[in-house]
Amino acid sequence: MDKIKFDVWVGIFVAIGVISLLGLAMKVGNLTTNDIRETYSVKAHFENIGGLKPRAPVKASGVVVGRVKSISFDTEKYVAIVKIDIDTRYIFPTDTFANIYTAGLLGEQYIGLEAGGDMNNLAEGDRITQTQDAVVLEKLISQFLYSKASEEED
Amino acid sequence: MKSLINFFEKIGYSVTSRIKRLGTASRLLFLILVSSGESFRRFQLTMKEIYFTGVMSLVIIIVSAFFVGMVLGLQGYYTLEKYGSSEAIGVLVALSLVRELGPVVTALLFAGRAGTAITAEIGLMKATEQLSAMEMMAVSPIQRIIAPRFWAGVISMPILASIFSMVGILGGYVIAVIVIGVDEGAFWSQMQANVDFRYDIVNGVIKSLVFGVACTIIALFEGFDAPPTAEGVSRATTRTVVTSSLVILGLDFIMTSFMLGG
């Protein structure tokens, strides 16, 4: 009798544990939404990446198509090299535009891809040549102030 | 001069005795690992211990998780609302529970609820010479008594921690969505967008596994090492709680710095 009681309770205990872990994975975590598995990686050079971080999303038309793999600095050209992993299901022309955007006013930064019209597609190890840097708020404000000031001088 | 020598002698004694205890504890862990084959072959013994350490801790874990989640919801909302981002409440509750509070609070509660019971039980077994009697009958107390309790603790801890995190998030949900009225869709979708399975959830489970090993081995060792008197057992039980709590918090800091750095 005791033996059966222990087995039943331990069974219930383990079942609740597994259900919680599954709940965490499915409902709380991104196991269901994160279906990026096989990827190919491309590079992009940016003058200024702003607050972009590794594992930031890479989006095309708002759909997450990949993630930022690593960010490093090149001391020959003095640019930031961003490596991007893109899902193999999505192919992009070689003249694709890579822009760094900000989600909302103060949100995280992500890379937006805008497809070009070239016949050839990006492959493993390629470089995206057309890039646009992150918008730095201070620069924008100072530009605005200078232009205002010069307007008033005229 | 004499007092100076005495002073250094005291320091030296306390350091060497601590290292000795650490060594004995490591030997105990090694012995358990070597002789745990038997406790898996007779899994019924471990099953019984999982019942006493894991299943019996369910009530305290679930109730405290629910309250912790509700408090997180209230406090988080109070602060986030000032910045107009009360939808991020789900992320806040989920990340703090899955990454930190789930494993750590579970381990602290486990040390208080199950660790003390293990220490007192084994200390009393030793005081009443039950362990020696077993050895007389050629039954290894490590195989029969210690190893099943060790594995029960190691198995129970991650399960309890996942239950804690899930129930805590439900508590946060009750406060944020049902009581305060944050949008339900935003609550879950922001959570899903920001909680990563491998980085956050798996790391939390790894943490709780390590805490499980640390908590149980401390409780077992203190019980095994206790002087065979009523006072000795009571002191050992106190030491179990103090040492476990400090070790849990220290290990948590070390593991967090590795996991966030990596």
Distance between the termini of chain A: 97 Å
Q: Which band does the percent of strand residues of chain A land in?
A: 25-35%
- Biggest beta sheet summary of chain B: none
For the biggest sheet of chain A, the summary is: 8 strands, mixed
Q: What's the gyration radius of chain A in Å?
A: 23 Å
Compute the number of structural domains of chain A. 2
Overall pLDDT score of chain B = 90
Morphology of chain B: globular
Number of strands of chain A: 8
Strands side by side in the biggest sheet of chain A: 7-1-4-3-2-6-5-8
What order do the helices and strands of chain B follow?
A: HHHHHHHHHH
The portion of residues forming beta strands of chain B comes to under 5%
Number of helices of chain A: 2
Helix coverage percent of residues of chain B? over 70%
Low-confidence stretches of chain B are: none
Please, what is the average pLDDT of chain A?
Answer: 83
Number of domains of chain B: 1
Oligomeric state of this protein: heterodimer
- Report the total helices of chain B: 10
Describe this structure in words.
The model of chain A has no long low-confidence stretch (mean pLDDT 83). By secondary structure, chain A is an alpha/beta fold. In chain A, 29% of the residues lie in helices and 32% in strands. Chain A folds into two domains: 1-34; 39-137, no CATH class. In chain A, a hairpin with a 6-residue loop joins strand 5 (97-102) and strand 6 (109-114). Chain A has two helices and eight strands, in the order H-E-E-E-E-E-E-E-E-H. Chain B has one domain. Helix content of chain B is 89%, strand content 0%. Chain B has ten helices and no strands. Chain B is globular, with a radius of gyration of 22 Å. The model of chain B has no long low-confidence stretch (mean pLDDT 90). The chains are: A alpha/beta (154), B mainly alpha (262). The A-B interface holds A 3, 6-7, 9-10, 12-14, 16-21, 23-25, 27-34, 55 and B 44, 47-48, 50-51, 54-55, 58, 94, 98, 156, 158-160, 162-163, 165-167, 169, 188, 191-193, 195-197, 200-201, 205.
